[in-house]
Amino acid sequence: MAMVKQPVESAGEDVNCCARQTGDRSGSGSETPETASERVNRRWNEILQETRVTQTGVQILFGFLLSVAFTPTFRELGTLDRAIFVTTVVLGASATGSLIAPVSIHRFLSGQRMKDEVVEAAGRLMMCGMVLLALTIGCTLLLILRFVIPGILAEVLVGGVMLWFGLCWYVLPLRLRRRANRTPRTDDA
């Protein structure tokens, strides 16, 4: 009997925890303020999830780039294309380092009661890694399109894609943040 009660109580606690994070604990629509500890733990968990997504993408792209140098077609690349390739590989390696760094920081500082500092540094490294990842993707696309499409069309297409990345990854979030800061917060919202 006690074994049956334990999971039910635990599940209730999880629901309350999740309800607190979504801001709807009692179903009334009011937000329950987070403690400083809850906020830093939530931010750390969010960074971990973001890191998982970006690390996978950058590692696949970086692996692809490393394999390109060993193909027969690579020998046919001109000086400019080789420079683009080298730049792309360096950007990919830098993005990988930046996106994996939060794991290393956490491992070195775990148990040191520095979670606020770890979360702050990890957030900055994630932003840096995202910029480097966008540049890596842009350079990779440029290298591929220059090989496939003759003329300036490759550069125009890459410029359009990079503009799209800038809009989706940076302009939209900043606009949403600015709009949220201008909107007065009430208990009814």
Task: Give a quick set of tags describing it.
mainly alpha, 189 residues, 5 helices
Estimate what percentage of residues fall within beta strands. Answer: under 5%
Radius of gyration from the CA trace? 23 Å
Distance between the termini: 42 Å
User: Which stretches of 5+ consecutive residues score pLDDT under 50?
Assistant: 1-28
State the major sheet.
Answer: none
The average pLDDT value, as a whole number, equals: 81
- The SSE string, one letter per element, is HHHHH
The shape, in one word, is: flat
State the secondary-structure class: mainly alpha
Helix content: over 70%
Give a short overview.
Helix content is 79%, strand content 0%. The chain is mostly helical and 189 residues long. The radius of gyration is 23 Å and the shape is flat.
What's the topology here?
Elements lengths: L1 H21 L13 H33 L10 H31 L5 H34 L4 H30 L7
Report what the structure shows.
- This protein has five helices and no strands.
- With 189 residues, the protein is an all-alpha fold.
- α4 (115-148) runs antiparallel to α5.
- The two termini are 42 Å apart.
